Amino acid sequence: MTNDEMLIREAIGEEAGQAVDPGTVLAALHGGRKPRRSRGLAVAIAGVAVTAGIAGVMIPLTASRGDEAGPAAANAATGAQGEQTILVLGLDKLVDEGQRPDSIMLLRAGADGSFRALSVPRDSRIDPESKLNMAYLKAGGGDKGAQATAAEVEKLTGVRAQHYVTVAMTDFPELSTAVGGVEVCLKKAVNDQLSGANLPAGKQTVSGEQALAFLRQRRGLPNGDLDRIARHQAFLRGLAARLATLEPAKLTALVDTVKRTVHTDAALDVLGLARRLTSQSGLTAATIPTDGSVDTPSAGQALAVDPVKVRKFTTEFFGNGPAPAGGGAPNGTDTRTPCVN
Questions:
Q1: Beta strands of 180-257 (E only): which ranges?
Q2: Could you list the residue range(s) of the whole structural domain that residue 87 is in?
Q3: How far apart are CA 176 and CA 253, in angstroms?
Q4: CB within 8 A of 283, min separation 6: which ones?
Q5: CA–CA gap between residue 238 and residue 335 (Å, rounded)
């Protein structure tokens, strides 16, 4: 670990009242003085859920290596404040097949420091023969798969993602353990052999394999995959809240985990994104409207979606007002732990 990294992590872990601008931290380090200590950046990370949380953890490493960061670091110096939309894919591996997205989300980073996450169910029917998550595998996975999924999401929502981030679901046990566990709340106890979820009712902290099982379970849930999406959103809120109080030792472990598990497109400017993070940043989440289950000839059951309804919902949701009616239950900026199925 370099001295720069140690200093930045120390700055994140200490108490203070204002958020730290990564550019200020970098200037302080290169000027030979210790940066003003603050845990404001850690609080800011809490407003962005997992993807922005990942970006937030990556910032100190990028800032301390300005000579290695390339165009992203140079672009960040301009402090561009326009909106950005990022496609977030949580990938899971199928037996005898490649990875497919189990979680698909559009994250809108606003110029005002706000963040909005719109979940798009993986089983959304995109044509008579295909579901949304099939686009990733058909394109060959990796960057091409992410780009193909972004194109299908744009057709459905009318929103083009400028960047993408992918995280393997199998890495969440390590991620949840690195932060010391994530608080969630279940309405009822679950014991599902398929996912391995064996959890009591009520509030609890999950980590390791039970965190993954919590995220994966959909069998036996009243609303199937829609309930699983609600769990994803609840988990992200719990993860964000945990990041806000993360001690330096846990942060170090998380940084190492992130470096091994997160992939982004080459053009994503994490420093520019980090400049938007403040202690007032909030996350509002919702799910696009669906019209029930339908059978497909070759892809099994899918969720019917009306692109007209979806586009209207998406436009209203990203218009920075309250989450519109008609979609999945919104998961707003309330700091309480929501109980889910």
A1: 182-186, 190-192, 197-199, 202-206
A2: 3-340
A3: 11
A4: 47, 48, 49, 115, 116, 117, 236, 237, 240, 333
A5: 9
106 near 311, Cβ under 8 Å? no
Structure tokens at 137: 């595998």
Distance separating alpha carbons of residues 302 and 128, to the nearest angstrom? 10
Q: How many structural domains is the chain composed of?
A: 1
For 34, phi and psi rounded to 5 degrees? -75, 130
What CATH number is given to the structural domain containing 84? 3.40.630.190
186 CB-near residues (< 8 Å, 6+ apart)? 199, 200, 201, 202, 204, 339, 340, 341
Q: What b/e string do you get for 112-151 counting C-beta neighbours within 10 Å, with b at 16 or more?
A: ebbbbbbbbbbbbbbeeebbbbbbbbebebeeebbbbbbe
Dist. CA 12–CA 19, nearest whole Å:
9
> Closest by alpha carbon to 54, among 182, 208, 166, 195?
166
Beta bridge partners of 125: 131
**pTM (predicted TM-score):** 0.70
* Measured distance CA(276)–CA(140) in Å, rounded: 34
Cβ atoms of residues 62 and 70 within 8 Å? no
* Cα-based angle 20, 2, 35 (whole degrees, multiple of 5): 25
Q: What's the mean pLDDT when you consider all of the chain?
A: 73
Beta carbons within 10 angstroms of residue 290's beta carbon: 23
Tell me the pLDDT tens digit for each residue of 264-312: 888 887 555 645 544 455 567 899 999 988 888 877 889 999 999 999 9
Angle, CA 71 vertex, CA 67 and CA 74 arms, to 5°? 70
